[in-house]
């Protein structure tokens, strides 16, 4: 949880630094740029989850030293994926940015931000592989060190670049790039102490094929999720620049929530994968129950914390007189986010650990196509008493709940399989 909480702090630090500038345009531009960068790179975030799933299973089946072979196979995927990312970035960025509202100043700043962030594509992909490997091994202190270092450095660099060098969005992008590079450097050093060498062996066809199948399902799942976020941002931008900026603040806090609760999901990934590989069904069922219960408790505590903080949290992130009123109108949605999302985050971890990635893919597609898309894009003519952004947030909460509901049959199948394994 500690390591995961540091992940969205990078975005929150950016929000806080830009949110106190005189103009709202830099904050809106980084919101757009970060959304596009995330849409592109997180589409390949299966490298993290796929590496975790196979690493945990192999660690349980053959022992921790053998897990190094999984990391090598994951690294073989970085080069082709990096080339694909670079091509997509150069082709589609000029086409996608204009879709986020009509403010040409914001569009120009967003392109400046992305021009720098895209240099970090290989760094981000390497980070996915290394973090996934360490989580699969149960060594979550290494990602914690990586991410804490990255966020401290990011905050210091962004403050210096923006407030002392007046670099604006370019300073934020450069700070994020350098911070991620430092985190990957720590990970490579730690992995070298555990057997990683520059002499990467040839691909293991069977293991690589297995990872590709898992990663294919995770790719579709993650791409669907990010398209939901992109549509959410675009619909908010269509209302006003102030609404886009306010939604960006809440999305940054959503990332804080999801990454905190993902601590239990990562525990489920690692432990369920390991005990499945070792053939210990009793432990698998216990881990499912304990991670679910603890995730619920953490979600309740987060909701209570946001309620107690009230408007103080918003004032820390921005003092813009146009954005703050919008945030205050929408604070109830922030209070509900941990409770709406905890079950889907936890169940994703269970599915990764059990290598039931096809169920994750199907649940995400169903929630996006059957729930979010029709609710978020339905004509608003039938009501004039409810704000459009309020309805947009309601659709998003329904989407989070639907993800968990659609995963319940798969959960019951996993539990039944473990019960059968015990009886056998």
TrEMBL record:
Main location: membrane
Topological relation to the membrane, as annotated: Multi-pass membrane protein
Pfam families: MatE
Keywords, ordered alphabetically: Membrane, Transmembrane, Transmembrane helix
Protein localization: Membrane
InterPro entries the UniProt entry points to: DinF-like (IPR044644), MATE_fam (IPR002528)
TM annotation in the entry: 27-49, 70-96, 116-135, 142-161, 173-191, 218-238, 244-266, 287-310, 330-351, 363-382, 394-416
Protein family (similarity comment): Belongs to the multi antimicrobial extrusion (MATE) (TC 2.A.66.1) family.
Name of the molecule in the record: MATE family efflux transporter DinF
Organism name: Thalassolituus maritimus
Biological classification of the source: Bacteria, Pseudomonadati, Pseudomonadota, Gammaproteobacteria, Oceanospirillales
Gene field: dinF
